[in-house]
Amino acid sequence: MRKPINRSILASTITLCCMGLATTAMAQDADADDSRSTPDVVELDRVVATAQKRSENVMEVAAGVSVISEERLEAFGATRLNDFAAYVPGFQVDSGGAPGQTTMALRGVAPLGGGSIIGTYIDDTPIGPSSNKQRATTYALDLLPYDIQSVEVLRGPQGTLYGASSMGGLFKYITKAADPDGFEFRAGMDVNATKEAGDVGTGVRTSFNVPLIEGKLGLRASLSRQGTPGYVDQPDLTGDDAKDSNGYYQLASRLALTWRISDTANLRVQALSQIVDADNSSAVGLTYPTLEPIRGPLEGILQRATPYRMETDYYSAILDWDLGNVDFVSATSFSETRMDEVQDSTLVYGVAWPLLTPYPAGQAQFDVFLGTRKWTQEFRLSSKESERFEWLLGTFFTGEKNANRQQVSAYDANGIPLPFNPGTASLPGTYDEQAIFADVTYKFSPRFDVSAGVRHARNQQDFEQHSTGLLYGPRPIDLADSADDSVTTWKLASRWHLNDSAMIYARYATGYRPGGPNVSTSGVVPMTKADTLDNLELGFKSHFWDRRAMIDLALFRIDWDDIQVRVSENGLSWMGNAGSARSQGAELSLMVRPAERLTLGLNAAYIDSTIGDVPPSSGLVSGSRVPMTPRLSWSGTIDYDVDVSDQWRGRVGAGYRVTGERVAGAYDIDSYNALDLHAELTNMTWTVRLYARNATDERAYVSTGSVRDALNRYVAVTGVPLQPRTIGMSIDYRY
């Protein structure tokens, strides 16, 4: 049962006001015309976020928001989430080795269960399944970040404005819009070398923007391809799968149009496609529970090849219309994702062949296909910026058609197929949701305001299961089920501007993740309930020291109820609701310009998270920390600008990221740190960059997974190693 919180909110708001009175004397008034402000500092003041579905200065948003610019992505040669996630406080990204084999956690809200807990958006529309049958916590959108203007990370539940599956936060790609006014052409290439890899990595990219009708219609197009060589060996495989077997490539293309219909109406249309194709898993074999390499630190224990491929197609149309007193937005999208993966299940099922059949222990392979076709439509009206009262009203619809096909195949010890069917399953389903939402802000004075928001959503799900084979029982299973649920989320926030450059805020917000029908096996509950989350947050944001410094500090407490977890027995898994969890802590972002050309940055998070009672078969431990959640993580950056000549300027910089010890079931994952370096020389037409990721060649595991056989015994742990030292150079031309 949800606890009464009205008194807590009132007390928090009163406390916030008192904090404001106490700290006014400490904050310095900013001089907007200070001639000493450097370009980077001015840029900080112009950074905008769309967290509240309005373009706002990030320092004015009453929530934890981080914005990673295109410049920062390019400086580190980023090609996937893992390359920059550690520079966002409280944001933990684990990887299975290739883009898309990605799990995300924020503020100790980890990807337990099957449905997404962090929403993913491209511009104004969501992408990715809402159903808990599509393993969205394991396979998240990971775009090759070219033609991306920025990335936004919203920390804490966003259920009021963004709805289902965003209870931990929101991850948003902001793409570059086509410009009807100007011509632009870019092209570039990248070459890099990874220690222990036999091949070099290469990347090529190009984009252009051209006005089709001057001032009215603009076209933008881009194409990029990135190849990453393998560095993990699989001695038990043969041929190309044995040496440097975990290489992959990314192929991304995008086409965008902007049509200025009139002085008051603007239409943006885009089509985006990405393919990720990986040869094999990046996981190596580790002993349980000591996590010592079974073989070498970069040697796996696969007995079956494990190719992986993810395809994403996305289309959107966004209409912005100024109706005079109000603004109208229509955001429409259609997306299709297809994921094929082969998993080596020899250690899970191979031992069971003598128990189920007359055949001796051997090999096993698990093939899974996940497909989602999703359309969304959002309409919203919002008031103009006002000195007293602002409002936003919207409605949202989504429809999903999901495919989930699974096949377990049996082989003998030499890899020859055995003549029986261990298990075949098809789990098709649909997910439909309708929601209405509203957000209002009342400004009691130019320095103090209160905002409130509410969202009511209803979802309907249809689910089928068609399964046969020894693992599912003596008879085939053919069933159909349906479920519907209604959830209301809300938020209350207040801001107190101490002066023109300092603000404190309080925010209480809720979020949820849909439940749904369960897989049918013996002893499994037929339905999984939605899990819910409450977040209380206090924050302070300020520019100070004549706008040469910026600070963003947040304290939070999260209560998570009816957690959806994956329960596994006899090699099968299903969803269940198990207890609660609590996460509380602090996040800090700090940027300082102590000298004209020198910029220093610090991001840090301290998270104290505890999981409640859970069944042992979930692989979790009651009373332990939430998985994937380091107690302490931090990163620092340093950048120094130099003038090389009248036409050329340069920049050198470094980033240092630290991820603390984490818990994964019944064992701990050691902490690790990595040093990233970069240098740049540009005349605004030609740009040459050098970069080194993990420059000290730190050896660590970015993620792990426990392996339990069909008898529920721990037999091994798989660990995905941190990518070894990678040194690269890129050249870009811009016209």
TrEMBL record:
Lineage: Bacteria, Pseudomonadati, Pseudomonadota, Gammaproteobacteria, Lysobacterales
Family: Belongs to the TonB-dependent receptor family.
Residues of the signal peptide: 1-27
Pfam families: Plug (PF07715), TonB_dep_Rec_b-barrel (PF00593)
Statement: the UniProt record of this protein carries the keyword Ion transport: yes
PROSITE patterns membership: TONB_DEPENDENT_REC_3 (PS52016)
Coiled-coil regions listed: none
Residue ranges annotated for the TonB-dependent receptor-like beta-barrel domain, each copy included: 304-694
Principal location class: membrane
Gene source species: Stenotrophomonas bentonitica
Domain of life: Bacteria
Localization terms from the record: Cell outer membrane
TonB-dependent receptor plug domain boundaries: 58-169
Bilayer topology term: Multi-pass membrane protein
Family matches, as CDD domains: ligand_gated_channel
InterPro entries per the UniProt record, alphabetical: Beta-barrel_TonB, Beta-barrel_TonB_sf, Plug_dom, TonB-dep_rcpt-like
Protein name: TonB-dependent receptor
Keywords, in A-Z order: Cell outer membrane, Ion transport, Iron, Iron transport, Membrane, Receptor, Signal, TonB box, Transmembrane, Transmembrane beta strand, Transport
